[in-house]
Amino acid sequence: MLSIQKIHHSYDKEQPIFNDINLEIKRGEFVAIAGPNGSGKTTLIKLVCNLLKLQKGSITFNGTSHTSLSVQSKIVYLPSDDYIPEFLTGREYIMLMSKLYKKNIDEQNLQVISSHLSMNKKLSEMVESYSHGMKKKLQLINALLLNPPLMIIDETLNGIDVEAKEIIKILLNEYTKNGGTIIICSHDLELMQEISNRVILFYKGEVYLDDLVSNLTRSLSDSFKELMNLEEVKNEIRTSFQFSTSD
């Protein structure tokens, strides 16, 4: 489905973000991408979505270049920010996006999803009145209604209440069971391991870990700690940093 071959990207000549990365993502996979800040998670997403110019290598979707409009129309990207036109109501935003993607919105699905996420009454209100969490919910409702072959989520679950997050887990899993593919980036490693079926961990421009969640012999959090060499950091802090207390 999504093929990433020998991509290289650098913001300066000193340190490349990626160096000949290769990935194959199949239809129906729920792929979690993790790594420390600066490891290339968001850069990879922006390259796939053609928001950054590919410097070297290739990205194809079912054999077609990712720069093709036909490919981009099959991808819905939920960025980490919550920039949504505030002069629209929630329903107007959904209808606008449906026209851009040339999709008909199933009204029953809209009612079911918005009701479960406690957004049904809010859809008639202006987006400018929404909280951060409500805007995130609106983004997810819209993406699920568009039902694209590929959904890319960058930290979108942050700021959403616990009850809604549990509902969203169910919705996203149903989406992948029905053939949809998800790439999700988050710093919430426990959540990533819980909801995804494959984990990719980046570090210093390389793929440090790429495996099915069912194959992991330890938690993703423990793998991340090893990656960051936190035990060495802990010992260094204990020996070199002195806390002083005063009455």
Protein architecture, described:
The chain has a single domain (2-84, 149-240), classed as Rossmann fold (3-Layer(aba) Sandwich), CATH 3.40.50.300. Helices cover 37% and strands 24% of the residues. It contains nine helices and ten strands. The strands form two sheets. Strands 6-7-8-3-9-10 form a six-stranded mixed β-sheet, with helices on both faces. Strands 2-1-4-5 form a four-stranded antiparallel β-sheet, covered by helices on one side. Helix 3 runs parallel beside helix 5 (132-146). The longest helix is centred in the last third of the chain and has 16 residues, at 162-177. The mean pLDDT is 88.
Query: In the CATH classification, which architecture applies?
Result: 3-Layer(aba) Sandwich
Mean pLDDT: 88
Number of strands: 10
Termini Cα gap: 63 Å
Helix/strand structural class: alpha/beta
Low-confidence stretches: none
Shape: globular
Rg, nearest Å: 20 Å
Helix coverage percent of residues?
Answer: 25-40%
| Annotation field: number of helices | 9
How many domains comprise the coordinates?
A: 1
